[in-house]
Amino acid sequence: MKKITNMKRTKSNKEKLHMSIVAGLGCLICNKMGFPDSPAELHHIKDKTGMGRKASNFEVIPLCPRHHRQGVAAYHYSPKSFTKKWGTQKELLNETLTMVKSNG
Questions:
Q1: Contacts of 101 (CB under 8 A, 6+ apart)
Q2: What is the pLDDT of residue 2?
Q3: I need a labelling partner for 8 at 20 to 30 A (CA). Which of 14, 25, 51, 52 fits?
Q4: Where in the sequence is the domain holding 67, given as residue range(s)?
Q5: pLDDT tens digits, residue range 65-92?
Q6: Which CATH number is 51's domain given?
Q7: DSSP per residue, 15-59
Q8: Measured on CA atoms in the order 63, 99, 96, 101, is the torsion positive or negative?
Q9: Is the pTM of this model over 0.85?
């Protein structure tokens, strides 16, 4: 029998709720720049997860497309430059979790 290794796991209700709350915060970087309520998509932090593996659905930070994946200011364009300017993914995750807690 062949083992299937690429099956995606369904998100739990708790994960879905957390991800929805984080996305609802708006882009963390736009907020730091004085532009609150910018639409956000979720960036799974990369912290010792290995090649091709993403972090848990609880380890996400809200970034708008511009700061996540589009253009020269994006994390995925230059993780090193992004980190130098805005902080590590762990630091941004801690900021995000603090915002989640303060918003109830």
A1: none
A2: 47
A3: 25
A4: 20-102
A5: 999 999 899 999 999 999 999 999 999 9
A6: 3.30.40.190
A7: HHHHHHHHHHT--HHHHHTT-TT---EEEE--SS--TT-PPPTTS
A8: negative
A9: no
